[in-house]
Design a protein that fits this description.
CATH topology of the largest domain: Beta-Lactamase
Shape: globular
Number of domains: 2
Radius of gyration: 19 Å
Distance between the termini: 25 Å
Structural class: alpha+beta
Helix content: 25-40%
Strand content: 5-15%
Order of helices and strands: HHHEEEHEEEHEHHH
CATH class of the largest domain: Alpha Beta
Low-confidence stretches: 1-30
Number of helices: 8
CATH architecture of the largest domain: 2-Layer Sandwich
């Protein structure tokens, strides 16, 4: 499903991109993180339901955390809890949150970005540093464009039924939109190293986690489905060449903007760098498709 889930690529991935990656390194932030970050124990009677104590923890985080911490930490604790509950015997699994990129000047969303990911071997534990942009070619792109969840129970049998980039160990996968009414912010992706892993009960559980992730997004990060017009993104091996320049781009954007218009913070510079990369990758893929045609 996702080429970047291949952990043998780890040494070639770009450094951490910073934007939305975690709480600020202050004493207050650390204590807030520790208060909410532990998972809630699951018993056999509630294995197919999100524990009420975990709902309470997410609601508390939503009410008490500062805006700079809220989105990242809610995503993080939901992904960790979902991974713990969906793979209690530590079976191979990856859980990823994908978010719509901010729209273009034409108010169109052209791509998606992986903003949070956790895995159980054979996948890496932390997947954010391997993030890429996704488009119409991906399973996530299909789900965000249609607002409908999809599940592939056996990738060996169902190849080509849905657009997807398959990871080395991935045998089954499912993706669920993050919706607020008829607006979409992204989707929740889950991959398993076992075929036919996603029972109806597990699919309901994953959809419930996707619904809970609504709290991790600001109202302005939700978009009408009509505004989702995704381009096609290149494969990971091509993207990583461009992604390797990310931090250098951020540095030059901050210098150039400070010289012309006054200083901007790193988060703003990172967002501009992502938008630069988005445009380049869409043009690259379009050019390659034109040559093949």
């Amino acid at each position: 499903m996702l080429a970047w889930l291949h952990s043998s690529h780890a040494s070639t991935h770009p450094p951490s991109f910073g934007a939305g990656r975690g709480p600020a390194s202050t004493t207050g932030a650390t204590s807030e993180f520790e208060e909410f970050s532990s998972t809630v124990e699951i018993n056999d009677e509630t294995a197919d339901e999100i524990p009420s104590t975990f709902y309470a923890r997410v609601f508390q985080a939503n009410a008490e955390l500062t805006p700079s911490l809220r989105s990242w930490l809610i995503r993080d604790i939901i992904v960790q809890q979902a991974l713990e509950q969906l793979a209690p015997r530590r079976q191979g699994m990856a859980v990823i949150v994908v978010q719509c990129m901010p729209p273009t000047k034409e108010h169109i969303v052209r791509s998606l970005r992986e903003v949070m990911g956790r895995g159980i071997p054979p996948w890496n534990r932390d997947l954010e540093q391997q993030a890429i942009l996704l488009g119409a070619e991906s399973m996530a792109g299909y789900v965000v464009t249609t607002g409908r969840s999809i599940t592939i129970q056996n990738l060996n049998e169902d190849q080509g039924f849905f657009p997807a980039h398959r990871a080395e160990w991935e045998e089954s996968s499912t993706a669920h939109p993050i919706l607020r009414g008829n607006l979409v912010a992204g989707c929740l992706l889950v991959s398993s190293a076992r075929p036919n892993y996603f029972t109806p009960e597990r699919l309901t559980l994953i959809q419930n986690y996707a619904d809970l992730l609504v709290l991790a997004f600001a109202p302005e990060e939700f978009y009408e489905l009509e505004r989702i017009k995704l381009g096609v993104m290149p494969q990971y091996d091509i993207q990583r060449i461009h992604l390797a320049t990310f931090q250098e781009r951020v540095y030059h954007i901050m210098l150039e903007t400070a010289r012309k218009n006054g200083p901007i913070n790193s988060v703003q510079a990172e967002q501009l760098a992502w938008q630069q990369l988005e445009g380049e990758l869409i043009r690259l893929s379009s050019h390659a498709n034109h040559e093949q045609g």
